[in-house]
Amino acid sequence: MGHKLKIAGWISVGALAGALTTVSLQTMARNAMAPLPLEEIQQLSAVFGLIKTDYVDPVDDKKLITDAISGMVSGLDPHSQYFDKKSFKEFREGTSGRFVGVGIEITQEDGLVKVVSPIEGSPAFRAGLKTNDLITKIDDTAVKGLSLNEAVKRMRGEPNTKVKLTIFRKDEGRTFTVTITREEIKTQSVKSKIVEPGYAWVRLSQFQERTVEDFVRKVQEIYQQEPQLKGMVLDLRNDPGGLLDAAVAIAAAFLPADVTVVSTNGQLPESKATYKASPEFYARRGSPDPLRRLPVALKTVPLVVLVNEGSASASEIVAGALQDHKRAIIMGSQTFGKGSVQTVRPLGPDTGIKLTTARYYTPSGRSIQAKGIVPDIMVDESEEGNLFAALRVREADLDKHLDNGQEKSGGKDKAQTTEKMEEQAREQAREEALKRLECEAKKPDAERKLPEFGSDKDFQLRQALNQLKGLPVKVSKTLTERKEEKKEQDE
């Protein structure tokens, strides 16, 4: 795959099989029983010794071991990760919806940090950072060569401390610096409003610890304004996922009691599980059912779910469950395709490992790993088509992604040739989309083709409302189902 595609998103957390799973004695015993590859362990020891004695500069023992563990884990798939003390703390903050930093969602492009979106109301938002800005330096450290996690660490810090970012704004052809004061960022994962009399829009931007509580409150507010609600649009576009129990709860809010929401399957017995629309699968220990305050009418209100290539993981769990149970019409474009479950295992009081432990399956048994949820109705992102979809990275584009575990294939040489041609086509499409995006960025906000989600100029939202009203929907003439991109096995 091209170097642009070897990307791990911001701090977008994959679905978790329970928040923080402790390392039990049974787990330790299971690991102890696994045979060790002695020859390879000896090689590791030899390399460690050579670095200690022969490397040009002294190297700290702890750094060598930590880097070895990190490399071992990151080599498995794009979502497994080793957490040192600082990154483990940051990970917990990310799932809670609170952290100290500048307030931007980021990805990586050509070795630089690219701004996906400034978080509304954050220091970065107030400082004027924009989508597609490239961060070239953090304080006096060049970003080129840093991993995404290392860049995040340098931008995080203590409240009221300052960080200087050097920004290259491609569409304006200029480089400038901005000094930002860090503060606690409280991400708002749920937004809602009455878009028309009788019709509501609810947007979930991420599945966090507070998402279910916020969702219940927003839905209550909607029904207070519109007791006879005629239809609802659940917007999961660009929602990268989050906590599994939150996804199960959101699906359960719309589904009949006790139906299957999602199932998982992996090596461990505890990885073979079925999650149902019942409080025991999503309520926090010792807490009452968080959905008990929802209006009964939510179970039957006509529902359209909006998704796109940025809808991943927990978003796909919700969309897949509502689609399989025919509870909602799924509309938009094919989703990201992250059908794997990550479990966090503490390795001590301050460190841990996020490990892919299972694939997940929709209620009908579909694995969507590296494929995604195919909408019932394909709708372009704008009236002019999918102008910028080529810029979005999917699970199948990520280096070392899992296959979906349901299909195998051969023909390695032919597949490699096809993959190279497809990558060249994707690269050309990305370049064309970038040019269009640069032209769009120069226009006034009111004239841009991709307005803010939920606005009166949101093309896909308008089509969702048409569907709810029984009016004609402008179905895409170009979008087609994207087949699973298979990983070939060595012959």
What features would you describe in this structure?
This protein is α+β, with helices and mostly antiparallel strands. The chain has two domains: 3-30 and 43-186, Roll (Pdz3 Domain); 190-405 and 428-469, 2-enoyl-CoA Hydratase, Chain A, domain 1, CATH 3.90.226. Helix content is 29%, strand content 21%. The protein has eleven helices and 19 strands. The strands form four sheets. Strands 3, 4, 5, 6, 7 and 8 form a six-stranded antiparallel β-sheet that branches. A six-stranded mixed β-sheet has the order 10-11-12-15-16-19, with helices on both faces. Strands 1, 13, 14, 17 and 18 form a five-stranded antiparallel β-sheet that branches. Strand 10 (190-196) and strand 11 (199-204) form a beta hairpin. Helix 8 packs parallel to helix 9. The protein is globular. The two termini are 20 Å apart. Residues 1-30 and 485-491 have low confidence and may be disordered.
What is the element layout, followed by pairings?
Blueprint: H1 25-33, H2 38-54, H3 61-74, E1 81-83, H4 85-96, E2 98-101, E3 104-109, E4 112-118, H5 123-126, E5 134-138, E6 141-142, H6 148-155, E7 162-169, E8 174-181, E9 183-186, E10 190-196, E11 199-204, H7 211-225, E12 231-235, H8 244-254, E13 260-265, E14 273-276, E15 303-307, H9 314-324, E16 329-332, E17 340-346, E18 352-361, E19 377-378, H10 412-441, H11 459-469
Helix pairs in contact: 8-9
